[in-house]
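Render Transcriptional regulator in 3D.
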Amino acid sequence: MDLTSDQRSVLLALTTDWQAPIQIADQLSKEGRDSSKVNQSLKDLMRVGLVQTNPVVLGMYRLTSDGTVTQADLLRE
């Protein structure tokens, strides 16, 4: 699967625990948070089934099982 650098960064920052986009953005850049890139990457990753959104608490995301496998593959590269 071809992922953009932003998508890769977001995927690597995500965990199986629920996280808000601002938490993910904080992990990626301490100086300048760009939550718009994080939000777009989350949408793209959800479309391909690597990320899921919390059905009860809006605006919370986590890795799916496929996302966990893909993350592990990226870490091995």
